[in-house]
Amino acid sequence: MNKNFKNNDFSDITFGRKSVRLYDENYKISHEEMLEMIQEATAAPSSVNMQPWRFVIVESEESKAKLKPLIRFNTRQNDTSSAMILIFGDLKNYEFGEEIYDQAVAEGKMPQEVRDQQIEAIIPHYKSFSKQEMNDVVKIDSSLAAMQLMLVARAHGYETNPIGGFEKDQLAEAFDLDKERYVPVMILSIGKAVEEGYESVRMNADKITTFK
């Protein structure tokens, strides 16, 4: 883990966004480090801690070739990045509810009686959601994890590019996921940048903020 990230010291990390689309195509990120970054990213907030985010790491030439026709105008990222991270939201995330809450009890983070009360209330509530309601929940939570993953990657010395332009109706099935269960949220390219990236402008905070 990057020492600054571990100690919550972000002083050496630049948060200004630059759109990096070209990477060192010879640089590979180890599975160990990729899992470490994802673990750090999943400390992101999650509604009732159901953690609906799911990740597919596309890194092999074969898998990148499968992804390429589905990502429209984002082929440079696919061709040169260390990996393309597909982020999905699990519409049946509540199936892991008991496992998550049992772990909280085992680690002394929640009393057993609180676990039982929460599970009894939350699971039926989540099961009652319409597909659209659950879709909204998993996209919000998974987007929070995606943004955190971008910051984590920067702390590890990598650049990322969030991609929303892709064939959403085909992505899950292309990578052997049930498209009725797994909702594509976004794709992140990740790797060692070989370009400065494109700067963009942002409106001033006082123009988009209202105090009441």
TrEMBL record:
- GO MF, one example: oxidoreductase activity
Keywords, alphabetical: Oxidoreductase
* Domain Nitroreductase span(s) in chain numbering: 16-192
| Pfam families registered for this protein in UniProt | Nitroreductase
What InterPro entries does this protein map onto? Nitroreductase, Nitroreductase-like
Family of this protein: Belongs to the nitroreductase family.
Its protein name is Nitroreductase family protein
Question: Which source organism does the UniProt entry give?
Answer: Lactococcus lactis
